[in-house]
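Example 3.2
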Amino acid sequence: MPLPDGVVKFQAAYLRPRAGKTLIVGSHIYVQKEDRRGRYADVVGVDMQAGPGVDVVLDLEEPLPADFGPFAHVECMSVLEHSRRPWLLAANIERVLEPGGTLFVTVPFVWRVHGYPDDYWRFTTSGVRELFPRVTWTAEAYAHSEMSDGQHVPCVKLKDWPYFARTEVCMFGHLG
């Protein structure tokens, strides 16, 4: 499924990856999912399941190999909701991020239940901030296809929706 327009707009406005080695967390390529490794020259795709787009099979909730990292930029898109213990996954992401390194996170705030392999959580921006206490966030949004333009922190336009539109938390920051 393609990303909501609001996520694409957020990336265009705020995503400024630090140059250097990049880690794509949850890199397994599912139907209609972009292989984000193609956006970077020096990149490692990691997932807990082998498959297309996966360079290293690794459970980021577990202790990491000593030689894993550091990374100048980490992307964690639509992964945290699939982690049984996202606080451990987040701590490991902070551990492999070099000082000043950048982090791009998207995670559902409202969306249908979906597998890969299971679905446990929904997050707010405050929840993501708690998971990554060492990251200084420079941009945050609740984004979907009705995200407004021209605001410092984009927000959702309110409408009479007959359902809850897929809404993602989008955050970009750097390790302080």
